[in-house]
Amino acid sequence: MARYVLVTGTDTGVGKTVVTAGLGHLLTKQGLRTLAVKPVESGCDGVAKEDGTWLQESTGQPEPQRALTRLRAPVAPPVAADREGVDLDPENWLGFLRRAGGENDVVLIEGAGGALSPITWSLTALDLAKDLGASVLVVAPNRLGMQNHVLLTHEALQQRNLRMLGIILVDPEAPDASTPSNADALRRFADLKPILLCPRVQHPHDLRETLEPVVSWILKS
Ligand SMILES: Nc1ncnc2c1ncn2[C@@H]1O[C@H](COP(=O)(O)OP(=O)(O)O)[C@@H](O)[C@H]1O
Ligand SMILES: [Mg+2]
What we know:
By secondary structure, the chain is α/β, with parallel strands linked by helices. The protein is 38% helix and 17% strand.
């Protein structure tokens, strides 16, 4: 049975796709049968490269090529689904992910938005994680305000008895005065660890060395 890992973030646009794709690539290179799946993606406008495509390319998986459910409007999935007359079917996502678990060593799941962002009108990505027994990787930007967001996310995981694998702090385009001290501050205030610092890269594949420790976090989970 596969290990399931939910990659969530403290917000949208924080680096979940880059980290998931980097990890998908690394795990596959290491010979682990890995599937990287985006259950639902909004903002699929036919112009920007979709998260689901990044994930597929990272592992080379034949399926899925894209998110399991794709919506056009760049808003929360249930809002987009209502606008577009689409029925969101979490049982379909869970069925797919369960079958994937039987055929892979690791199944990476990229959430939409942050930990408590609705993916249907009654579910968040944390509910999927709970159903699948997934561990959770938290991606956050290494900038001012991050501590509050990471602590809120951690508390949401604790409340649901979800295991946090670790925190990935992604370098912002422009570091601020808090960037050099954020990781230590999180460790000191809340003993949150492990924390990994993630540099800015041209392509997710360039994160191979950086994400190496995450492989052991996953394999030990
Ligand atoms: N480590 C990184 N290095 C360079 N650019 C990054 C990095 N992480 C995120 N980005 C950029 O920031 C934007 C948001 O990242 P993305 O992974 O799509 O976030 P999310 O999946 O959380 O919405 C993208 O343009 C992405 O290329
Ligand atoms: Mg994304």
